[in-house]
Amino acid sequence: MSTEPVPTIILFHYSFSPYAHKITWYLQLRGIPYKQCIQPPIMPRPDLAMLGIKYRRIPLLSIGNEVFCDTSLIVRVLEEKFPKGRLGESGGAWEEWEIWSDQMFPHATALIPSNLPLMKDEKFVKDREDFSGRSYKKEDVDAGRERALEKIRGFYSHTEKVLSDNRNWILGDKMTLADIEAIWPLEWLITLPGALDSTVTVDTYPKTFSWIKRFTTLLPAPRSVKIPTIKGAEAKDIILDHGQASASSTSDIGVPDDDPSGAAFGEEVEVTPVDTGKSHPQRGRVKALGMDRISIEVASTEAYAGGGLLRVVFPRKGFEIKGVSVKGDAKL
């Protein structure tokens, strides 16, 4: 049995991020201790910039000197590192719900009411247009509302059908990771004033609304949860203090000669999402390319010989790797 202390876990997020809700729910239901570093909802994010991280999607989660990107990877890493009491014990069925929710989420964001104060904030609108690649102008948001509602009603109908045999949870009589993966966009829409209309209510989808209430009842009361909140400088120090442990990183699995990306160990690359946030690629040097993840070494603003380095880890799915020259010209 290892006597090494468990590295500090830090969640970088902001309070109204629905993707962050998924991870905070997971951590709380698993009873995994963590600290949080609250980020602004729009760019720039100086705390992450200090670490050399330009990737813009939230949340990010660090364990030791590794920073994991994308909730799909974060969940898998937590299941691996904390196997006792894992929520994915029912096999891979939860992954179907992960895919379903990710596909539905763009339609959910299209239901953000155009009359919300945030939607009248020029900086927020510009930031979200840069992130999503679509217009957030009032007339465009209003024009796309009915189509988005149609898609979202399909999601509520799907969960209603699954729950029609009076099961309490998505996969049966036990709450699993499938429930977290399925519920986060649906719960977010219910709590977003004006997002849904009279076609999506407790009367039209009673089993789904009861399931959501049953799930949220399991969560600790907000006032009873006291998550340590730290500033960016402290988060940076915690992460970089683990920098010397990078040689034994769990993500350091090498680079196969025949990797489809053509990237080589130590090569400088940019890792970019293929859908949203594409204008903020993350640059670093390749340290590991596996079947399901990419690990690159990134220099913080305090990088120096033998220190100031961290690993930033991405899933392979949904991301692309491009080699760069010193001037930033693509090589691959």
TrEMBL record:
This is GST N-terminal domain-containing protein. It comes from the Eukaryota. Pfam families: DUF7962, GST_N_3. Gene3D superfamilies: 3.40.30.110. CDD domains: GST_C_family, GST_N_family. InterPro entries: DUF7962, Glutathione-S-Trfase_C_sf, Glutathione_S-Trfase_N, GST_Omega/HSP26, Thioredoxin-like_sf. PROSITE patterns: GST_NTER. Residues 7-86 form the GST N-terminal domain. GO terms for cellular component: cytoplasm.
